[in-house]
Design brief:
It contains 10 helices and no strands. It has 231 residues and is mainly α. The chain has one domain (4-230). The longest helix is centred in the middle third of the chain and has 32 residues, at 114-145. The protein is globular.
Amino acid sequence: MAVYVPWRGQRRIRQLLALPHVGGRERRSLYVSAIAFQWVAVAVVGWRAWARGLRGQDLGLVVPDTTGVAIAAVVGTVTFAFIQWFNLRRVAQLPPEARGFVQSFADRVLPQRAIEFIPFLALAVTAGVCEEFLFRGFAMGAMAKAGLANWEIVLLSAVLFGLGHLYQGPAGVVSTLVLGIVFGITKIAYDTLAVVVFWHIAVDVVAGVAGYRFLVRPMTPSSEQQIERAR
């Protein structure tokens, strides 16, 4: 989680950014491969966690307070969705040359046509479920079992979460690290992953929807076909 995941994500994104054009086929392939990788990772980690004696309660898979969790999930989902939407709209107000990596990332990774939103939304849900299990469920559960203090658990799991998003550049690492701290504290407070799973999904879904609206410069099918033929 500290080495292979950051390396794999950064390598894949660098390959996409190096291309003169990324079409719908490449984006859909990226989404599908990321979905497959995350579920395989969850299966392997879940198997080893169970073999090592970590159970549902340790991994945050139990919901002890249904009402409180539901309220927190709804309020937080709306809040994080608004913050993400506002932040992307703010970035879009910058001159194109000042957007730097964010614009390049949006042009190549975010969905640009309606048909791409289905696999992207599947990826957003997958990331919300799988990444929370890996970073807030397994990582925090393993650290707690090792006897670390809560503040150490939250900080170390947030660092792993930030490194896992190294492909988003330095700003992406910092923002996801901060998000990881908030999610980690919330996971401990509610003793479940349910709340942060919904929050995570909201952040990723809005990134695709608002990114498409504010940052992406969609290509028409005909222009995309012309580039494909040229390649």
